[in-house]
TrEMBL record:
<keyword id="KW-1003">Cell membrane</keyword>
<dbReference type="GO" id="GO:0005886">
    <property type="term" value="C:plasma membrane"/>
</dbReference>
<feature type="transmembrane region" description="Helical">
    <location>
        <begin position="138"/>
        <end position="158"/>
    </location>
</feature>
<feature type="transmembrane region" description="Helical">
    <location>
        <begin position="18"/>
        <end position="41"/>
    </location>
</feature>
<keyword id="KW-1133">Transmembrane helix</keyword>
<feature type="transmembrane region" description="Helical">
    <location>
        <begin position="256"/>
        <end position="277"/>
    </location>
</feature>
<dbReference type="InterPro" id="IPR001851">
    <property type="entry name" value="ABC_transp_permease"/>
</dbReference>
<keyword id="KW-0812">Transmembrane</keyword>
<comment type="similarity">
    <text>Belongs to the binding-protein-dependent transport system permease family. LivHM subfamily.</text>
</comment>
<protein>
    <submittedName>
        <fullName>Amino acid/amide ABC transporter membrane protein 1, HAAT family</fullName>
    </submittedName>
</protein>
<feature type="transmembrane region" description="Helical">
    <location>
        <begin position="187"/>
        <end position="206"/>
    </location>
</feature>
<keyword id="KW-0813">Transport</keyword>
<feature type="transmembrane region" description="Helical">
    <location>
        <begin position="61"/>
        <end position="86"/>
    </location>
</feature>
<dbReference type="GO" id="GO:0006865">
    <property type="term" value="P:amino acid transport"/>
</dbReference>
<keyword id="KW-0472">Membrane</keyword>
<dbReference type="GO" id="GO:0022857">
    <property type="term" value="F:transmembrane transporter activity"/>
</dbReference>
<feature type="transmembrane region" description="Helical">
    <location>
        <begin position="226"/>
        <end position="249"/>
    </location>
</feature>
Length: 290
């Protein structure tokens, strides 16, 4: 019985960490991994989704609709930011870093001034289950299912839909796509908006589990960048295995030595991957299959 409890606790911690990494990095993988834009405002799009979700839920919307509303609002804000700022900085990575960092500071301080240092959140739904005297949140299990569904949905979108084919063509060969009649400016805007919406979805999904503060995006951004860097440019080939490996490392170190060592393990892993596999897991996996 004790062995079952330990195995269940380990699997639960692994699944929880895997879900967090996948959900939090999905939007960044689209914007950074696919488009090459280093978006330091990723955490603020997550914060936007969380704040809108909490506000919509308190206004009476069911939580799933509130989460969807948060994702849509974050996506719309992302398209506006892309049109006004990011569009002028493609192929200028250093400038995009400074610009998105500035957007991050403006968003954080603006929310702090307008809405205050904290915001009333929403309670965690579904309750919990007891296994061996320990309590486990059922909502965390839902998040694990959402992570798997998100990976499947993005795969279908980018590889089995007209939008996905045009978006990948625009990002990889913009001149050729433009010559074939594709409105590349609109596709860049839609793709960036999708990445922002995925960030807002992450904030909405985790809004019931977190304290609502303007700096809450910082909780996500380190793990997001670590997962995308380890995974490489291909969101589907690299992100899922990277999240699984990092979740195993973090869950194991956290269970044995505490949360601090789990964070250290993530950072050490990304340093080693950058040194040994500059193209990330996806670059290595694609190289081995040729």
């Amino acid at each position: 019985m004790a062995l079952f409890q330990s195995v269940f606790a380990m699997l639960y911690q692994f699944g929880d960490t895997f879900a967090f990494l996948v959900i939090s990095c999905a939007g960044l993988a689209v914007i950074f991994g696919m488009m090459g834009v280093i978006n330091l405002a990723h955490g603020e799009f997550i914060m936007c989704g969380a704040y809108v979700t909490a506000s919509a839920a308190r206004a009476g919307l069911p939580l799933p609709l509130a989460i969807l509303t948060g994702a849509l609002v974050a996506g719309a804000v992302g398209m506006v930011v892309e049109r006004l700022v990011i569009r002028h900085l493609y192929h200028r990575p250093l400038d995009s870093i400074i610009a998105t960092w500035g957007i991050s500071l403006i968003a954080t301080q603006g929310v702090l001034i307008v809405l205050g240092s904290t915001m009333q959140g929403v309670g965690t739904p579904l309750g919990s289950i007891d296994v061996g005297g320990r309590s486990y949140s059922l909502y965390r299990l839902v998040l694990m299912a959402c992570a798997l569904g998100l990976l499947g949905g993005l795969y279908m979108l980018f590889y089995h839909s007209r939008f996905g084919v045009i978006a990948r063509a625009t990002i990889q060969k913009p001149q050729m796509a433009n010559a074939l009649g594709v409105n590349t400016g609109r596709m860049y805007g839609l793709t960036f908006g999708l990445g922002a919406a995925l960030a807002g979805l992450a904030g909405g999904l985790y809004a019931p589990t977190m304290t609502m503060v303007p700096t809450m995006g910082a909780t996500f951004i380190v793990e997001s960048f670590v997962t995308v860097v380890v995974g490489g440019a291909d969101i589907f080939v690299g992100a899922a295995p990277a999240a699984a490996i990092l979740a195993l490392i973090k869950a194991g170190l956290t269970a044995w030595y505490g949360q601090l060592f789990g964070q250290i393990g993530l950072l050490v892993t990304v340093i080693l991957v950058i040194r040994i596999l500059p193209g990330g897991l996806s670059g290595w996996l694609k190289g081995t299959t040729r």
